[in-house]
Write a structure and sequence with these properties.
Elongation Factor Tu (Ef-tu), domain 3; 6-stranded parallel sheet; 12 strands; Rossmann fold; 6-stranded antiparallel sheet; single chain; 488 residues; Globin-like; alpha/beta; 15% strand; 3 domains
Length: 488
């Protein structure tokens, strides 16, 4: 019978037959010798290094890469056949490829005749849809460049068309360098009153090109775009140079205090304004006015007097339907109010070297610049130069300046004033009072001939155009007929 100890070792959980200890020989299966217990092996003896080395304090040094010394140049190979150079093929050096054209440099060249042809062709497509092109143009400006939005009035009912159409007019006139330069110089000076800066011209040009590209249809090509960029660069350069030159001698606008406000009719007022500094202008010119009630809304008004020693300015203003500025000046302005004035503009001025007699035709408040021309002509002292004034209105009570003109005529035999009525009240009673009837252009035609005179026309556009046509058919040369319809 086997001992109890041996049985336990062979059949227990720690028996050598069931599990051998690595590194030790297994016991024989039938031996009765007692198995000595094996002492445990320590996992990390104290005399061995730790399992994970400590973190290094200094980074390891990286040796500099060795560079091989440059080899000495070898001998130049000689041709194989020195006596037969034709057999030694020589590859010629290839010329460098020309640089790609810079589109910005191409746009800086002046417009060519081909460019002007492309401009006209694209304008013919855009003009019938100018309203939509204009709306898209301003949408691009205001969305992409919101800082420019502050230069425009809150309501864009009138201003919306002005800038876009001015650019189109300038592009159309690119073939007339002298006329274009005069027009653009005046336009550049006028835009100073809006706060326009040199940096604004670039974004406006990009939006103009984008709007034209959208509405020019199949007429828009890369060549057409280059033509427009050239023309716009010419336009912006002239305007910027004029504005910078003008800034050296005059402010962008003047402040003017209303010192007198006289209502001549229910819808016509005569305003007298004192500017805050010397204001240069000539009789026959006009300016733009901005009221404190409609910021950034400017409207043109003619000077109604020649320059005075006291520096005061006079304007005749008629309140028109939906006229924001005119209604404010007639019905709201009062002494003490301060207006803003732009620079004087317009070329309807007297040429004293010419010496021809004058024919002045004015309707409504168009008499204002003609009154200024009368004052300058009489004050200049040109002996023998007569002045004939035709002053028209619908009713007799609308001839608000007739008494003042007749007062000037009483002191000078060279001035003649002929009032004309065209409305329902123009009957026999009016004729008996010395009033001509039948319409202003027709009265001028009946009272001719006027071939030896220089004519100045002001008033409603339809009246000015009709009178101009009558004078042309009567033999007055076109260069002797002057008005400012195109400039306004």
């Amino acid at each position: 019978m086997k001992s109890r100890r041996t049985l336990l070792v062979r059949t227990g959980h720690g028996s050598a037959a069931a599990s051998a200890v690595p590194g030790l020989p297994a016991a024989a299966p039938d031996t009765a010798q007692a198995v000595r217990p094996v002492p445990p092996v320590p996992l990390d003896p104290p005399d061995l290094p730790p399992a994970v080395p400590p973190r290094p304090v200094d980074p390891p040094a990286v040796p500099a890469p060795s560079r091989p010394e440059a080899a000495a140049p070898g001998p130049v190979p000689e041709p194989l056949f020195t006596s037969a150079p034709g057999l030694n093929w020589a590859v010629p050096a290839l010329a460098p490829a020309p640089p790609a054209p810079d589109p910005r440099a191409a746009a800086e060249l002046p417009p060519t005749a081909r460019d002007l042809e492309l401009i006209r062709a694209s304008l013919a497509v855009v003009e019938p849809v100018a309203d939509r092109a204009t709306a898209h143009f301003y949408a691009l400006i205001f969305l992409g460049h919101p800082e420019i939005r502050a230069l425009f009035p809150a309501a864009m009912d009138v201003q919306r068309d002005r800038l876009f159409r001015a650019l189109l007019m300038a592009a159309r006139g690119a073939g007339d360098p002298e006329g274009l330069r005069a027009y653009l110089r005046a336009l550049g000076c006028v835009h100073r009153r809006y706060g326009t800066l040199t940096g604004h011209y670039g974004p406006v040009g990009e939006c103009l090109v984008a709007a034209l590209a959208r509405y020019a249809g199949s007429r828009w090509t890369a060549e057409t775009e280059l033509a427009w960029r050239r023309v716009y660069r010419l336009i912006s350069t002239i305007m910027i140079e004029a504005a910078e030159e003008d800034a050296r001698t005059s402010p962008p606008w003047w402040q003017g205090e209303v010192v007198a406000h006289e209502r001549r009719t229910p819808d016509v007022a005569v305003l007298t304004v004192r500017p805050d500094q010397a204001y240069p202008y000539r009789a026959g010119q006009y300016t733009s006015l901005e009221t404190p009630w409609w910021p950034r809304v400017w409207r043109h008004f003619s000077f109604a007097s020649a320059p005075r020693p006291d520096g005061l300015l006079t304007f005749h203003v008629k309140a028109v339907q939906a006229g924001w500025v005119s209604n404010a000046l007639v019905h709201r302005a009062a002494p003490g109010d301060v207006l803003r004035l732009g620079p004087a503009a317009g070329g309807m001025t007297l040429d004293h070297a010419e010496g021809a007699d004058l024919l002045l035709v004015g309707g409504g408040t168009g008499i204002a610049p003609l009154r200024a021309l009368v004052e300058e002509a009489l004050g200049h002292g040109a002996a023998g130069r007569s002045v004939e004034v035709f002053y028209g209105a619908r009713r007799a009570e609308e001839l608000y300046e007739l008494a003042g003109l007749r007062e000037l005529a009483r002191g000078c035999g060279r001035l003649s004033v002929r009032p004309v009525l065209s409305g329902p009240g123009a009957g026999p009673a009016g004729a008996a009072a010395g009033l001509l009837t039948g319409g202003l252009p027709e009265a001028v035609a009946r009272s001719g001939p006027w071939t030896g005179r220089t004519a100045y026309l002001a008033g409603p556009p339809a009246m000015v155009r009709r009178t101009s046509g009558i004078l042309l058919r009567a033999g007055v040369p076109a260069e002797r007929i002057r008005h400012d319809l195109a400039a306004r």
